[in-house]
Specification:
about 400 residues; single chain; two-stranded antiparallel sheet
Length: about 400
């Protein structure tokens, strides 16, 4: 505040009066460093209260176009899945080089993620909000694996499909959950840090849980799964983060293209594996048509009532359980509404690409990779629908939904 000294003359008798006027300065707005949380490019848009928005320069138009294109991941996967159904040979060039092509593509996806990650900012956020982050990570590795095992038993899935569903359930959260959380007006920083934490923890937890839950069906090489996860997930993320800190000028050029590359590679990976299984389903459909003179609708219903229908149902139930139970558990623990949405979406959406790579690399049956491949389509449709539904409903405390720093600072 400022102190003003004013002399006031009077006609009789002459004297000086000292008048003190206190003028409090308006509080300075909190300005966040634009260099912080560069791995959270959508936090600014997630907050409806402009008072808490980070001050960052306006992006060029071409960068906004790339960001918009990257946010259409559900559309790419859906269109790619339709192409895989109609013409599976479209992906033959990629499938023939699997599983090496699958591992390399996932490694590049994780490298792109690492290029946008500043570990020091990630650690700072973890220190500020440890409870919600730890709760979300625990929920991720308890809710989904449990329901994966229960659903496989309840539906009486074959051993190969059971292993595929359990493997999918034991995978970490997917990067698409961050985009869906933004759409749902949830806590985007929490979603992003949960994705990083569960991804790093996947080196131990994914193989361990898969061995415990799926080991009753087929032998599971937990050490091999752990090494593969380390190679195609953790190592590329750490390498990308190191490059980001060592070669910032190069990374600044690459970073705008990284999200779009990642979603296109993820779509190619999921649709390629799905196309390989479509051939088997088409063979079943041809056999069904030869066996009877039923109409096309009856043949499709017959096909859906078989193995394909069971896979779709099991994946639907798994992701629904993740979304629903994740939200309910966060509500019971009295987290804020934006945090509930972030936890629900993070738990319900898996890194299906990792499930595909591990399934094709460590299991002989190609059917094991079918649940993760189907999940890439079903999960994104369900998640996007939930996100757009929640977007129409303002969270009760939306003023803090996009804050990065605590008010205590």
């Amino acid at each position: 505040m400022s102190l003003t000294l004013r002399l006031s003359p009077f006609p009789s008798p002459p004297q000086n009066h000292l008048k003190f006027t206190f003028k409090p300065h308006p509080p300075k707005p909190r300005i966040y460093s634009p260099s912080k949380f560069r791995f959270l490019p959508i936090v600014k848009a997630a907050n409806d209260n402009s008072e808490h928005l980070p001050a960052s320069p306006t992006k060029p138009r071409w960068e906004n176009v790339l960001s918009t294109a990257a946010s259409l991941y559900p559309l790419y996967v859906t269109v790619g899945g339709i192409v895989a159904c109609l013409k599976p040979s479209t992906y033959a060039w990629f499938v023939k080089r699997g599983p090496t092509s699958y591992s390399l593509s996932l490694g590049m996806i994780m490298l792109a993620m690492g290029l946008t990650l500043e570990l020091k900012d990630f650690l700072n956020l973890f220190i500020q909000r440890p409870l919600s982050i730890l709760f979300g990570c625990v929920a991720q590795y308890t809710i989904m694996p449990t329901f994966g095992y229960v659903i496989s038993k309840a539906l009486g899935l074959s051993p190969s499909l059971s292993v595929g569903l359990i493997l999918l359930a034991c995978c970490p959260g997917g990067a698409a959950s961050n985009v869906v959380t933004y759409i749902a007006r949830g806590d985007v920083p929490l979603s992003t840090v949960m994705t990083v934490c569960t991804t790093l923890g996947a080196v131990i937890l994914t193989p361990l849980l898969t061995m415990i839950l799926a080991g009753t069906y087929v032998p599971v090489d937990a050490i091999g799964l752990s090494i593969s996860t380390l190679q195609v997930v953790v190592a590329p993320i750490l390498l990308g983060s190191y490059i980001q800190s060592s070669l910032p000028f190069v990374v600044k050029i690459i970073t705008p293209f990284a999200p779009l590359f990642a979603v296109l590679a993820s779509s190619l990976l999921a649709c390629s594996v799905f196309s390989g299984n479509v051939v088997c389903f088409k063979s079943s459909m041809v056999n069904a048509s030869l066996a009877s003179d039923a109409s096309l609708i009856d043949r499709l219903l017959s096909l859906l009532s078989g193995e394909l229908g069971v896979v779709i149902l099991s994946v639907l139930l798994l992701h629904f359980a993740g979304f629903f139970v994740g939200y309910i558990s966060a509500a019971i623990c009295r987290f804020r509404e934006p945090e509930r949405r972030a936890i629900s979406i993070e738990v319900g959406m898996q890194n299906s690409s990792l499930g595909v790579v591990l399934a094709t690399s460590h299991f002989t049956s190609p059917v094991v990779a079918l649940p993760p491949a189907m999940s890439a389509v079903i999960m994104n449709i369900m998640g996007s629908s939930l996100g757009f539904f929640w977007r129409q409903i303002n969270p009760s405390d939306s003023g803090t939904s996009g804050q990065i720093l605590d008010d205590k600072e």
